[in-house]
Amino acid sequence: MKKVIALALALGLSFSALTGCGGKKEEASQPADTTQTKTEQPAETTKNEGNNAGEAVLADGTYKAEGEYDERGWKPVVTLEVKDGKIVAADYDEVTEDGASKQADEEYNNNMRAKVNIGPADFFPQLEAALVEKQDVDAVDTITGATSGSNHFKEIVKKALAAGPVAADTTAGGLKDGTYTAEGEYDERGWKPTISIEVKDGKIVAVDYDEVTEDGASKEADEAYNNNMKAKVNIGPADYFPQLEAALVEKQDADAVDTITGATHGSENFRALAKKALEAAK
């Protein structure tokens, strides 16, 4: 009997041990965090390289200057062209009183070349090109063998730049700046056409036309005349004189000014007198 009990107890303990081992779970290991931290690269900044030179900007235009005649009768002259604030062309020469050019004087060039291996026809263009390239007369190098000529060039360029651009004399149309006037003859009614035209930078910029009596009365301002003409042709001098003036400023050509309907005679007087006045501007 004791053996049976002991055997039963042994079997019970074995079963408990087997049950405990089968129920134990192995703890799974957590995977390593593989998430990468993204580093933000700073935005690339473009550096704007500005021009800090602070150079003085020249006014656009034509610059001219001339010096004094030297003991041999040569006078330095220069013309500079400035566009967009830069010297774009230079024309330098030395001339006699009658206008003869040292640069074009073959004998002078040959004599100078025989002595120093260079002449005005060689170094004048070199000086001009150097000025356009360097934009600074003080940066223009003295030409070997032409020290005096180089100095004359630098001095006259400085004089031209200091004086500033000269007023334009003409344009493609050939008009000189100024105010030009003309007057016609008195007609059978006692009216005389008069005109004043202002030209600036080669262009007609203002026109004042009228017809006046001997005592200076204005047809444009004559209310009775205007009313009478308007009653007949629906237009008067106070209307079409300004139209003719505006047309000339717009078209820059008296022959291109159209005849005003109802004012054929007045339009013809205007064109004829405008052409007469502008003759002096050519």
From TrEMBL:
FMN-binding domain mapped to chain residues: 73-164, 190-281
InterPro entries, per database record: FMN-bd (IPR007329)
Annotated signal sequence range: 1-19
Any coiled-coil regions, as ranges: none
Annotated GO CC locations: membrane
Gene3D superfamilies: 3.90.1010.20
Feature: compositional bias, Polar residues: 31-51
SMART domains in the cross-refs: FMN_bind
Top-rank lineage group of the source organism: Bacteria
Keywords: Signal
Sample GO molecular function, one term: FMN binding
Keyword Transport listed: no
UniProt name for this protein: FMN-binding protein
Protein source organism: Defluviitalea raffinosedens
